[in-house]
Amino acid sequence: MGALSVVFVLFVMATASGRLPAGYRHRLYQGPPPGCAHTCRMDKQELGAFLRSRRERLRPQDVGLPSGPRRRTPGLRREEVAVLAHISTEYYIRLEQGRAPRPSGDVLSAIAGALRLTDAESDHLHVLAGTAPNRTGLHRRDVRPSILALLERLPQTAGLVMSAAFEVLAWNDLAAALMEDFAPLAPEDRNLARRAFPGPQRADARLYGLSDAAEFRLGVVMRLRATLARYPTDPAVTGLVGELRDASPDFARLWERHDVQTTPMLTKTFRHPAVGEVTVDCDTLTLTDRDQYLVLYTAPPGSPSAEALALLNVLGAQASHYTP
After folding, report:
1. Locate the HTH cro/C1-type domain: which residues (predicted)?
2. pTM above 0.90, yes or no
3. Residue 244 and residue 198: Cα distance in Å, rounded?
4. Residue 273 and residue 227 in contact, taking contact as beta carbons nearer than 8 Å
């Protein structure tokens, strides 16, 4: 029997049993890598809005300036930021108004220091200005075969791979049992951002009983803002952000904060319909070569949550939150 025939037989057997081999489960996204479309694009409007949002959150005393008389607007004045960054007031005003030419790396570093930006915010500033290292125009959805194999070899660990746009690209059996079986879903329904902000079209969507759903939603918004800055011409990213802003007032409100600093979520509690509460350690590893995230959920050995995960391993995906 030839190699192709063997593969076909395995596929038919797996389909009949209701479980697909790991190599087939993730094919909805496993296309070739996107073609290169390098750009040094400066997003003037987003850059100006980001600078304004960071300036308005600071008080004079935060940067060693006297508070002085009552101010008409919150935060620092534009001229104060310019003085602190050692640049002209006129140029800084034009930056916030989206009318200035691209600033140099030194000017951006000076502005970041004046506004007391975190490392993540400073990186975001460089991305908006077009001075960060170039990326391809589209975010990647093809997962390395070695990562797919790793997911299948992790004992007592629920694992998944997520794209920069919160698409679930790959997962193992325990992740399907803990969350849901993503295999039958259309690509747009595998997106965790849509799960977090369902809108009227998906009003019945639940976020797997997460105890920290509000924190997760905030993290989604912050990461998506950073993703949009890296992939401003990717229709999948721009379309997702536009859809969520229109469909969810909560998303729109959080989006206008221009936050990009995320707080690591070290533990999560899932309220599972079959095994009750499952509290897991949450480790997120960045796959830098493809701008993806490997998310691993584990529980301390011997704990009730470890026993629950072991039971879910036996029950399989039919015990998940969703049965499409």
Report:
1. 75-122
2. no
3. 8
4. no
